[in-house]
Amino acid sequence: MRREHFTLDVNNVGWVETNGEPSKPSVSIDFTGPATMLRERLTGPDGDVLEAAETDVALRLQGPLGDDTAGVVSVTNRVTGEFILELNEDADDVLAFIRAARGYGESAPDEEGRYTVEISLDSDQFVTYDKRTFLVYDDEGDLLRQHSLIPSGVEL
């Protein structure tokens, strides 16, 4: 699977800049490559689609923060550690998304997710995850807690 086969689109983040009413941010990822491999990666050994709790979302910076730094957004299988998908994105855009998710979380019930991830295969929705965590790593692989979305009470 090539990163170029993925398109990422975000919604409900503009309210942060305008101090508007908080709205749950969402990210839509559409895959236009051969769907068989991605479908397999999103499916567990029991044949069922992975649940939200079985996946992790992260951003790995490809350089120092700032200066139009690029990053790689990834969704991984929490149980096996294998990458499900990866795509290139501007780090500042991803960090703005995380700020919106954090701001939304300040007004949302604790048990509710902070953002939604929808993965589609050739524009057909395949899976939707309600997520509470989004980890950010620097270009050397160190966790940047101050930029990550980590629910209170979670130990890493």
Could you say how many structural domains there are in total? 1
Q: Overall 3D geometry?
A: globular
In this structure, how is the largest beta sheet organized? 4 strands, mixed
Measured by DSSP, the beta-strand proportion falls in 25-35%
Terminal residue distance: 29 Å
InterPro entries: DUF5793
Pfam family, one: DUF5793
Note the main attributes of this structure.
156 residues, alpha/beta, four-stranded mixed beta sheet, 8 strands, globular
In short:
The protein has 156 residues and is an alpha/beta fold. The protein is built from 3 helices and 8 strands.
Give the helices and strands, then pairings.
Blueprint: E1 6-11, H1 15-18, E2 26-31, H2 35-41, E3 55-61, E4 70-77, E5 83-90, H3 91-105, E6 115-121, E7 124-131, E8 135-137
Parallel strand pairs: 2-6, 3-8
Antiparallel strand pairs: 1-2, 3-4, 4-5, 6-7
